[in-house]
Design goal:
heterodimer; A: 112 residues; four-stranded antiparallel beta sheet; B: 112 residues; mainly beta; six-stranded mixed beta sheet; 11 strands; 0% helix; globular
């Protein structure tokens, strides 16, 4: 049973470009969470999704960030018009709610 | 607002020592508490999950306790090894939400 798969593992973008981060949950898990870890800071909740639904997006910045979890395929975290402050590690987790969360290896975004 | 604090922020010990890592949270209305390990540049590995109705969980050399009323959890590591070197994160799930609130972690170094 493969774990939570995230790609790309590393992504470099120039200011103003778009970043797309993908997450495939563990087999059988229909609950996906995105967290962001800024350098030398803790993990901060961004968004919680179930298939085709955003359940809680209270941690998402109001602009430029969006997330989806379609009926088929991985969950996508999209960041438009990236700025240097978006440089961080973005982690995806999945669960059989309300159970234990399992995290992926993360996607490390660097904005030049 | 739930806040999670971990002390110490960093710990360096010789191999073989028994360790106690502390986690405190401000709101005792939690659903569960989870301890994770994070290696540099890597994702999070779930170590132990304690439900709010439980007092402790054990896995190998690890033992986690939960005192919900006082807002505390401890992670006990017996006979520490250099391979235990990592950052240990505590996270609580508030009772009314599906997201985890993380502490900033304890960075552990075990030297031979």
């Amino acid at each position: 049973n493969a774990g939570v798969m995230q790609n790309p593992r590393h992504l470099v973008r120039r200011r103003g470009q778009e970043a797309r981060l993908r997450c495939s949950p563990m087999k059988g898990h229909s609950h996906v969470y995105w967290y962001r870890q800024l350098p030398e800071e803790g993990l901060k909740f961004m968004v919680y999704l179930q298939k085709e639904n955003i359940i809680d997006e209270s941690g998402m910045p109001k602009e430029r960030f969006s997330a989806e979890f379609p009926k088929e395929g991985p969950s996508i975290l999209r960041i438009q018009q990236v700025v240097r402050g978006d440089s961080a590690a973005y982690f995806c987790a999945s669960s059989l709610n309300p159970g234990e969360l399992f995290f992926g290896e993360g996607s490390r975004l660097t904005v030049l | 607002k739930q806040e999670v604090t971990q002390i110490p922020a960093a710990l360096s010990v010789p191999e073989g020592e028994n360790l106690v890592l502390n986690c405190s949270f401000t709101d005792s209305a939690i659903y569960n508490l989870q301890w994770f390990r994070q290696d540099p540049g890597k994702g999070l590995t779930s170590l132990l999950l304690i439900q709010s109705s439980q007092r402790e969980q054990t896995s190998g050399r690890l033992n986690a306790s939960l005192d919900k009323s006082s807002g505390r959890s401890t992670l006990y590591i017996a006979a520490s090894q250099p391979g235990d070197s990592a950052t240990y994160l505590c996270a609580v799930r508030p009772g009314h939400t599906d997201k985890l609130i993380f502490g900033t972690g304890t960075r552990l170094q075990v030297f031979p």
